[in-house]
Amino acid sequence: MNLVESLLHALKDHGAREIFGIPGDFALPYFRIIEESEILPLYTLSHEPGVGFAADATARIRGGLGVAAVTYGAGAFNMVNAVAAAYAEKSPVVVLSGGPGKGEASSGLLLHHQAKTLDSQLQIFKEITCDQVKLDDAARAPADIARVLASCLRNSEPVYIEIPRDMVREPCAPVVREAPRAIDRDALAACVDEILGRLDVAKRPVLMAGVEVRRFGLEEKVADLSRRLGLPVVTSFMGRGLLTDCDAPLVGTYMGVAGLPDVTQLVESSDGLFLLGEIISDTNFAVSETRIDLRQTIQAHNGQVTLGYHMYANMPLAALVDEMLARVKGNADKAFPVAHYQYPKGLVADGETIAPTDIAKAVNDLFAEHGRLPIASDIGDCLFTAMEIEQTALIAPGYYATMGFGVPAGLGLQATSGQRPLILVGDGAFQMTGWELGNCKRYGWDPIVLLFNNASWEMLRTFQPESGFNDLGHWGFAEMAAGLGGDGVRVSTRAELKAALDKAIATRGRFQLIEVTIPRGVLSTTLARFVAGVKRISTK
Ligand SMILES: Cc1ncc(Cc2c([C@H](C)O)sc(CCOP(=O)(O)OP(=O)(O)O)c2C)c(N)n1
Ligand SMILES: [Mg+2]
């Protein structure tokens, strides 16, 4: 077996199911082995940001590793933002990059694609990955690969593997997975004692489930734990979509001033807030109506637990949840009453113009009739609108908040899960990576794309209305769909929107782009609440 085959088998053994990539001359040798070995399917896309977002999406929706394969320099540097998003949002993406061979590295010449030094790329990726290796020694490679892939899964963060192009066919032994790290059982027991003790004395305990619950495959267990503890469950903005198909007392999504008042009140008045797998970020917590004293919360994330001023290190989330389940038998006698929020439905299919909340109604009506679809959302008002759509699997960069994620992530979702996705994207974000839809035909993907066209960087305009640079003008996105291999339609009334969705759900085998014209300045209910709330608390 050669070095790349050994790497590919290891990736598959650690949970990778496909590779997204764009080659280059430094990468052609390893791409050739990927294609010829057929160990993992290879999907090439058109721009490396899309490669990174698609790989990230597969890890988020399926669990296991996402894999993004690029060439040295221009390719890898083009993907830095997408890998940074994966790092910030705890997504286990493996970055494979071709690299200069040992011989050429000592040629004394500056190499094409080289930035500062030949190691600049490795240095830059050290900032957005939790482990790295350059495979320049075939004898050491199996152990290095095992270490890096174990880091990726243990931390649920990206890692970087550089493959010198003269190493790809070096004979290489198979990779043996690293043994799981030992856990101090006494410390784990003490930690669980303290958590249960805090929850027991709390009068209004609440469990907030964060993205690590999905990343470590714990949704069913956390739903079971919440029932046993009799805790109401909320998700954060980033955690939206978690626990959708689990039997959990899920009250809703906490969004502070932008969210549903009863959910906001439940969380902000809690005297026992248990943050499980949560990213403690501004998008999750900065818009609190009443400041949450995080020191009074129980925080379990990043492999450690913090209660007030106590910190327990090396507490993997899975081990913590398992230990709590082992200690808490049977469901609580007091089941938390869950008043299921009634999402907006019953779109009036008339000649009125379309507001984002009308889109949510139309989608909820579609889900009621045809079943729910998983959602890949970009950022912008489309993501705020997603909060008004029925709970369903949702992947979106709710914390890192990069544009361009939506379309490639939807393609990655369909490639890895086989499910048809609903993609929500604004016109500004579509201008960045929407063209990846041109790859659907080759691979048989057929997402339904709802393009929120307000001809504006509208989120920015809400904060700085005086700036003219937020005007984008109208692009004819619908007309471009046919050239990309799909069907496109522009809709400006609610009746047209309903008809377009009915046609889209009935059409398979071609992507369906619905360009929704939204009048200038018309926001979703959620974004309007967010903007008003931010303005209110910033003047306090
Ligand atoms: C890659 C990238 N570039 C720039 C931004 C800044 C930014 C926003 C965040 C605040 O940083 S929101 C926004 C406008 C989005 O426009 P569109 O996709 O049309 O959505 P909508 O009209 O609903 O706002 C920009 C440019 C970003 N988040 N990501
Ligand atoms: Mg816009």
Automatic annotation (TrEMBL):
Q: What's a Gene Ontology MF term here?
A: phenylpyruvate decarboxylase activity
Cofactor or coenzyme needed? thiamine diphosphate; a metal cation
Q: Which residues form the Thiamine pyrophosphate enzyme central domain?
A: 192-326
Q: Which residues form the Thiamine pyrophosphate enzyme TPP-binding domain?
A: 379-516
Pfam families attached to this UniProt entry: TPP_enzyme_C, TPP_enzyme_M, TPP_enzyme_N
Which of UniProt's keywords are assigned here? Decarboxylase, Lyase, Magnesium, Metal-binding, Thiamine pyrophosphate
Q: What is its EC number?
A: 4.1.1.43, 4.1.1.74
So what family is this one in? Belongs to the TPP enzyme family.
Q: NCBIfam families in the record, alphabetically?
A: indol_phenyl_DC
| Protein name as annotated | Indolepyruvate/phenylpyruvate decarboxylase
- The species is Aromatoleum toluolicum
Q: Which gene encodes it?
A: ipdC
